[in-house]
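Reviewers of the previous submission asked for a worked example of the structure-prediction workflow described in the proposal, so we include one complete record here. The input consisted solely of the amino acid sequence. No template or homolog information was supplied to the procedure at any stage.
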Amino acid sequence: MEIKEGYFEQQQTLKGADTAQEHQTNHFDPSSTLKACPVVRGYPFIGVLPKLLLNPLRLFQRAVKEHPGEIVALKLGTVHAQLVTHPKHVQYVLNDNWQNFGKGEVMWKPIRQVMGKSVMTSEGESWFHSRRLMQPMFTAHKANALTERLVKIIASDLARFEKAADGGAIDMENEMVLLTQSVTLGVIFGSSIDRSEAENLVEALKILNREISRRAFLCFLPKQFLIPGERAFRKAIQTTDNTIVTIIRQRRQSGLNHGDLLEWLLLARDEESKTGMNDQQLRDESVTLFLAGYETTSATLTWIWYLLNKHPEVERKLRAEIDAVIGKRQPTCADVAELRYTKMVIQEAMRLYPPGWFLARVLQEDDVIDGYVLKAGTTVLLCQYLTHRLHEFWDRPEVFDPERFAPEDSTLRHSYSYFPFGGGPRYCIGKHLALLETQLIVTMMVQKYRLRCVPGHPVEALPGITLRPRYGLRMTVELV
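From that input alone, the workflow returned the following structure tokens.
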């Protein structure tokens, strides 16, 4: 695929990137002294594959501790992978030479089975067409236009939350999943989906999300190993297809003004070809928006409540800002821009516990990164969780300190020392909407509740497709 020179810059990275620092170019000389990647030792033949399947984050932490700042080789059975964590190496993979680092097949196969050829999963001309078609719908301006709809859905669902919280301790992780599922469904489909359809769809998508997470690292096993749950996986895909395609066809016929994301997708036209999306494309993008939207946002919110409970001084400052800017009324689009500390709290939570904690790419052709030689076909693993905690780029990286995201401090760091939404031309298209939704939910919940962790309940990060508390998050809820 050939992309016109300067296209992304002219379009402000497809009209969606409002931070130039995400796309700074910092090429380094590939002809520098060549060096071999250090290797994390494992077992004969299978390498470190058992450790990857048991706890991939622990394996990656060990690799970075033993070989700080380096690209580290991991032998995963028949697959050779390289762990990349230094920001300048991350920038090369995601931005400077991004076209040489595709998504490949291995780790993306189960995701493509669910999401089809969406903007998240496609490559080459297919991706370029999808991105160009969808990007105008996901600017900051477009996200802000959904503020009133978001506030209405959140307010309605918090009534359900209060009833659930009235009986004592609750699992806040599960509650945030339910809340963000409701919000995401409402934003995408509006009133086109009834309660029964919504329940069936959410149940099917829950199965799909679980199965994708289960298959994420099992894909490195030899093909003769059968992964359990295949029947439930395929049935859930069929249920999802039937429900969403029916909604799409009904919407095409109705011609009603719903003002939701599905309507935006239906009206989208490619600037060059003037063509829109067919039913399959609409299905793929809708599923992707739902799964990627609720899963990452619910994980972020869960960690925010945990961190605020551990740091009462941050919570006090957060409450003071919300009281001063909004008080007890519902937030508006204009208010969101004034909630600067609230946004900093969210950014810091996503630094410590990025919901998408790793990315996988596959090298298309041989390449040299900072002197390290990588062969075509190599799986490259980027780990936001580790890059976000590098001492070289973060003062006291293990400490929860939202102040580090004050504008005057953020410009001093390497632009790829923080990349919770990815980076380069393929950065997350839903970034603005995700931040807006999270900011509104945090604001509206802090206005009404005080959340406290149940003493003694263990909290440990579980690395699946997203990063979640292994044992959930037990909390009590008090009305303010």
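The CA atoms of residues 84 and 454 lie 37 Å apart. We consider this example representative of the routine output the project will generate in years two and three.
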